What we know:
By secondary structure, this protein is of the alpha+beta class. It has helices spanning 32-44, 54-59, 61-73, 130-145, 159-167, and strands spanning 2-3, 12-13, 22-26, 85-91, 95-102, 117-121, 149-155, 171-177, 183-190. Coenzyme A is lined by residues 119-121, 126-132, 154, 158-161, 163-164, 167.
Amino acid sequence: xxxxxxxxxxxxxxxxxxxxKLSLTLLDSTMGDAYLVMVDEFEAVGxxxxxxxxxxxxxxxxxxxxxxxxxxxxxxLPPGIVPQWTYVLVENRTTIMGEIRYRPATAPPFRxxxxxxxxxxxxxxxxxxxxxxxxxxxxxxxxxxxIPGVALVVEGDNPGSVRTIxxxxxxxxxxxxxxxxxxxxxxxxxxx
Length: 192
Ligand SMILES: CC(C)(COP(=O)(O)OP(=O)(O)OC[C@H]1O[C@@H](n2cnc3c(N)ncnc32)[C@H](O)[C@@H]1OP(=O)(O)O)[C@@H](O)C(=O)NCCC(=O)NCCS
């Protein structure tokens, strides 16, 4: 499994259990069908996909990718929204198993959608270590970027995400109950 990440200086090589090639890469103009198959699977099992502009992705993939490039470059962002890089984990260049978003310039207070990293793994590919793999790669990038640590916000009961964060050294930094009585947990992973 070859792991490459768009902005990383060093690529890493690993193998998955089926000896297939995986790469963590920025979404590009060739990935529309594979990406929407992943989104369709989330929606088919009753999970929303609020992480990116899916209506635009369905209507005009090239415009969607152009919007992602603008997000990375900080172009046309609303006030208070920092640049974001959207990476996907791709198998054999054809199947997308998950997505991870990286926002290195995020400043406190950390809140849902306003944290350094968010991720999601396609339902049929869960419990295979892919969240752990994606997070580890983006943490390498964050270290290379020189930021002291990253905040990740978990809403409600999410043992898979909490365990993923704990495995990367995350600790609970803040907890509060929001206006919908949902417990919100802010985790911090120190990087240096
Ligand atoms: C949370 C999520 C990203 C986990 O992805 P995943 O690829 O299944 O996670 P991994 O296989 O890398 O597992 C990482 C660790 O979490 C554990 N884990 C994963 N899902 C779990 C679950 N539902 N319950 C308990 N532990 C779980 C794994 O066992 C592993 O720990 P271990 O190595 O000690 O056994 C995935 O369930 C998901 O996309 N959920 C919906 C979106 C979401 O909640 N995103 C996070 C928002 S904060």
